[in-house]
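Suppose you are handed a protein chain with no further information: no name, no annotation, nothing but its sequence. What can you learn? This example shows the usual starting point.
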Amino acid sequence: MKKILIISGLQVFPPESGGQIRTASIAEALARLGHVVSIYSFTGRKKDYLSLKESSNELAAANISEFVNRTPLWGVVQYISYLLKLPPIWLTLTTYVHIPKKLKSLIHDSHEILVDFPYLYPVGAKSGRKFHLNTHNVESNLYAQPGLLRGVLSSVVAKIERKAMSSASHIFFCTSRDKEYFESRFRISALKMQLLPNGLNMAKVEQALSSNKRFIIRDSLKIKEDTTLILFAGSAYFANSEAFEFIQKFCHVNQDLLRMLKIKFLVVGTVTEKVINTEFYYSTSKVADIHSFFL
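A reasonable first move is to predict its three-dimensional structure. Written in structure tokens, the prediction is:
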């Protein structure tokens, strides 16, 4: 049994979007193996800031606890970055000069450190310990859009990714394509790289599928039993918004095919702000538990 610390920029539990689900699933898998998992999250959820909830440490699941830093200034900076669709470079700049006292204590008490996303690599580098890096995307490619600002942002993020990967002892990738991209671009040692595909806590999914809740939710959404659903879950991150636009266009172009095959897209999460129900896709907006939408 080891004490494992996961350092994240965003509150992980309860997981409400794709990135949170990936990190939460990793934490749950480690906990099932008997390890004690602590999570330090630099920012919390909007509703907690509005209710003036203070920073706190809470039990997220068996063998998993999460400390959420709700310092108002950091919450505001994160919110502005999110609105302007900017990468969270502020996390890199902040942790380069300052590591919070609570985080230092958690680092001291842990056996293994997992840094979530490359932006927080200074924490691992300054810890004096070997650390693992959990990637979610090729972050620099997300900002590789036309325009001077986007070009500068992509270049800065690429430098952060390079620094993070050179500092980490092990790097986990979602896809083989990401792994191959970084291997060729940054010439990373194969010994440092490992494929760790996105996964789900199947116990939660099976529980949702085996309960009457599945039928209740389908009925409330007016989705028939013989309809095959394709689930897309995501936050309002701009890459997810682009994916949702693609789904909308796909549905418009392929109406006859989707109607014949009885297929409908179920879009779950804050990637849409309002509920939209069409013949070919249904967007729910924000939900409390994504696992219950495996219908």
